[in-house]
Amino acid sequence: MSLRIMLKILQRHALMPALVLLQVALACAILCNVLFLVWQRVQPMVAPSGLAEDELVLVDQIASHVRPWTAAEAREGQLALSHLPGVRSASSALGLPMIGQVTVDYALKSPAGVSVGVNGYFGDGLVKTLGLELVEGRDFLPGEYGDIGVSQSSSGVPTAKSAQSIIITQSLERQLFKGESAVGKLLAVPDDPSDPGYRVVGVVRHLLRNQVDLATDGRADDTILAALRVGDTAILSYAVRIDPVMREVALRGIHDTIKREFGPLMGGESFLRIGTYAERRNEALKSARAALWLLAGVTIAVIVVTAIGIMGLTGFWVQRRTRQIGIQRALGARRSQVLRYFLLENLLIAGFGVLLGMALAFVANGLLMHFYELPRLPWNYLPIGGAIVLVLGQLAVLGPAMRAADVPPVVATRAI
């Protein structure tokens, strides 16, 4: 049967095809946006951290209620932790992966004019302690480090007289230098020509940012290490790299050392947090996992409801045309031809529904952007969602189409 005749039949009985079309359009619009939201939640979970995850212990919320900790106290604590049994290295730090209480933002601009906003981590010897893999350049030299002070009354990165040494990730290198090596090159501060900027001395393979909500769309590694030591600060944090074989010994030693070094000014341990990187990652991504399960449930519900709806409507549509099917069979139509007809008809209806659903998906995304500040839906999610709905529609119509193909010509011609 030609496409023109098929369209005429659908126009003559427009209600049932219209219901299927609208259901497919609504399912496509919902599915495109849900798939996008699911991937937004999944990306931080699957992003490589670049860290020695099994060896890393994070200590934070070492808070003084009397006065800020001094740079000397921060270094003494680092030295005490690094000499513990089972500890390979320790670094006092400002900003660490999976610790979002303190975030430091940098704005970088490449010589080509590409600007990127990134998270920054400060600390002495973080490349070694975090277990980062240097793929280009080198680690910071002792003479490159400066001190940064962050107190309750003031915060910020101090103004440098010369370009500050930084280490960036491979992802940032690709974004800022378009395939060229970044080592030895300068990065400027956007909209501040008086700032001397930053000089790249090394490149690490990965380093996950601590703003995990922003670790999407290729931004998970938008992170730098700055050659700065922690100075006076109201809250201290430490990264400690341990021997996994001596995990329990090292954890007890870390707790006892923190209590001994800082206990008199801490005012108790109610805010102190000591945990492995795996524990912190699990905690930081808890809300993302809950949202993912919710979205997965929505996706399954949309798929099931759409499949049941198409099967029900198509089954009713086949039953209404039993006599027509029987006449076709009596005139010599084979089972495969009847089956192919219904599959093609459903594909035609679903195709128009998918096109309408793609337009609805953009409208729905615009509303989500307006009311919930979600990012714009990338265009490539439209064909993915459309293809899923088309395949689902063909699978859903297969059962009714096979029943139609099995209708005996004698029974069909006697139907009322």
TrEMBL record:
Domain of life the protein comes from: Bacteria
Localization per Swiss-Prot or TrEMBL: Cell membrane
Protein name: FtsX-like permease family protein
Record-linked PROSITE patterns: PROKAR_LIPOPROTEIN (PS51257)
Cited Pfam families: FtsX (PF02687)
InterPro entries named among the record's database cross-references: ABC3_permease_C (IPR003838), Macrolide_Exporter_MacB (IPR050250)
Principal subcellular localization: membrane
Annotated transmembrane regions: 20-39, 290-318, 339-367, 379-398
Keyword Transferase tagged: no
